[in-house]
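Reviewers asked in the last cycle whether our approach scales beyond single polypeptides. To address this, we selected a multi-component target totalling 975 residues and predicted its structure end to end. The input consisted of the following lines:
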Amino acid sequence: MTITLERHKKPPFWSARNLSYQAYRLKNRPEIIIGVLSLGFLGFVVLVPLFQIIREALTFQRYDLAYQRDGVIGSLTLLHLDRVFNQPISQALFYKPLMNSLKIGFAVTLIAVIVGSSLAWLMVRTNIYFKGTFGAMLVFPYMMPSWVGALAWLTLFKNDRIGGSGGMLTYITGVEVPDWVAYGFLPITFTLAMHYYAYAYLLISGALATVDSELEEAGATCGMGKWKRIRMITIPLLLPALGSAVVLTFIRILGTFGTPALLGLPVRFFTFSTQIYASINARNQGDAYVLALVLIFLAITFIWINSRIIGVRKSYVTMTGKGFRKRESDLGLWRWPLTLLIIVFLLITVLLPMVLLLWESMTLIPGNYSFSNLTTYFWAGKGNVALAYGEPGVIYNKGILDALGNSIKLGFAAALFNGALGLLVGYAVVRGRGARLARWLEGIAFAPYIFPSIALGAIYIGMFSTNIGPIPALYGTFSILVLITVIKNLPFTSRTGIAAMLQIHQSLEETARVQGIGWFRRMFRIIVPLSMSGLVAGMLLTFITAMRELSLIILLISPGNMVLTGVIFGYQEQDMAQHSAAVTLMLVVIIITISVIVRLMSRRVGVGRLSAV
Amino acid sequence: MGQIRLSGIVKSYGKEVVVKNLDLAVRPGEFLTILGPSGCGKTTTLRMIAGLEEPDEGDIMLGERTVFSRSKGVVLPPEVRGLGLIFQSYALWPHMTVAKNITLALKEQRLSKVEIAERLEIALKQVQLTGYAERYPSELSGGQQQRVAVARLIALRPSYLLMDEPLSNLDAKLRTEMRASLKRLHRDLKATTVYVTHDQIEALTLSDRVIIMNKGRIMQEGTPYDIYHHPANLFVAEFIGDPGINLFSGTVANGALDCGDVTIPLPEALAARGGEMVAAIRPEKILVSDQPKDGWQEVKTEILQPTGADTILQVRAGETPITLLQPGFLTLDEGSSRWISFAPEALSFFDKKSQDNLREIA
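The resulting structure, written as structure tokens, was:
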């Protein structure tokens, strides 16, 4: 017995035998290699930039010489913190934008979650009419850029404050629209809410669909009334989903740039995101980084509070895989009125903005909304010095068409890389389940979530404005747009990847291993085809997000890597409303067309066969 | 074809040790079954042979080749071990046709097209699935899917065959059918086979040799006959046999085992040993009479379970429940008396403390 034990004693770690053993092991476990590589890459693109901006926020920079002539560049300083938190200028720089952002954040989240969950309940749990059509239409705002509503709002309510013309309302009634209606808190809150309800709706209807109606019926047999059942059973069961809907919506709103820029800047109404933008434009990066860090801190705090309150009870197993029933409650007399209400709601949130933008793009003289003033110049004009600084219409405009090409390229590149990265991260996490490496990887893939879009953009300016080792300065290149889009979407795609990988039973790959099939072939012949349907859906969403993104990349675009959203924002800044409306419409049409095509395609490619197994 | 040899294998997940210093040798061409309750370490052992898990310590040899050795620093990946493995879930690739499922590994080996086509045809013919080559797995029944998994191995011709509860997803009737086809597979491939199951019938019907595992250790190793008739310890005695073995726990007194309601005759050597022990006898080995006989124990029938060919009788001697198995379809009145006797050669005795069979001592 002692002899056996002697023979099998473990050799010391650094011995040649053990090292060869460890090398063999590593070769046998591709998930570890992939995991380490992904972890390294993600650490580099997520954590390094974070440290970078913390460092820059806390050290004296060249541009600070303007404020303090005797400063030593690179020395540790509290200058930026002082300016942001503790100087007369802090009111304008920090406290006011903070209050504005929080006010908007709370108001929009409240409205979006109430509207979103009411719609979710009507759609999932009642016998409302036209469910199919409504279902497709309700997520429509989610596909559009969040600031489409803001553009439409301007068309309707703009006043001549910025020197331009008035909006449609002024034209029709002759009444000058007051600033508080045209700009600032009210319109920002309203237009953002009309976009983000779709987000809350998607999250909550997904959760609602997994709550077994029998649980509610069990309440009914205990003599609970309808409202009591909703209050005592449905809402508590949905609480985790509601909680994350609230937090995720809130974080997104904190980081959103387009709407507050369009509707806030004309009246110098700053939010956190627009203040970061302004600071960077004023070459005070240090201030911008401190603001970005505060934003990240806020986001983390809200996630933490959410997980504190709800996280503990996260594990309601409402999905059992057993008999599962969804019962629709009968709306009775309310069926038609509520259906009509949804129709009106959709007309206002979906159709109206599109009509307004179309009209705006076809008005010859800005501010004149009569039929006689309609023109196709901004679509098909070849350039006329008297109009819009001689900018040609959309289809002859090289700047726009180049940006369109870039946008589509960005969408495809981001979708492709995200798909690949999601697959690899999913593979490494699922195959390495339980190991520390897998947990770290899962954690770091989630990290971009806590960076509000505008803050991540600020981080990337800081990081990629100079060479880092072999990597050239990426600022101003197309690659940096792809990189940041991929990173920002990673939390979502890695989840998709993990979910897709969990559905592929381990034995399907193991049986191939045992039969002598190597890793690459296993990947391409088995793993990829089997996870395709999930991946395609994830990639489509990345594509749409990339096409419509503004907050994330506003700080990173330059004439060299211009995309459509940047073009739109540029036109808007120059008060060329017809052009921005035309390009926005084009963008929306492209996004919708492509998503419809992908959906049709993935339906045709034997996804049905896969799901049958 | 060659031996499979495991020595000094230890495997733990975190703090839980699932395989404890396991030594095991499978002879070339042998059909060995590892039998045990769930969580006993049998599947882990099989996966370590396949290379899908790494032992913490020990050596594994396939034929003359060391495929794993912690002390020599060798781990060969599953891809090069030349094994065939059947999973409980069949593990057919749902997005490939039957033909692709069977030939994917052959293409990896760079076999010629003619050879691949030939092997495919033979394999399909042997599992009687000729004509199903272009079907998808979802279009086949459970039994047919199982046969595709078998065909995949036939085409691959591995020298070592591993099976991980391959029949547990099938219904009872199909199981009997598939047992026969797995036995045929083993015979045709002449492969050294390790079969893992928790089902004793599969173990007893299929194997040349059976290993019974519990809590990461081997409890007994032997032919199905040995395992059934000469269990090495109480665990094996209780685990094997359906209906289960009768156990009587008692103390040696007056040259016999006094178990309260029942007194069991003891061999001399054991009577001399004294102390507490457990007597065991299979239900079908208990002699039964419907007339009182001298020295036989009277029992009252409680419950009858005729299964067709046999009848299981639950009876009581005083308060002690006893199970009997009688041939034929019996119909008796519940509560009627029977008389039973224990033939000395059918009895096994176990030490109450160590739970080991006391035959060696006797």
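Chain B has a mean pLDDT of 91. We regard this as preliminary and will revisit it once experimental data from Aim 1 are available.
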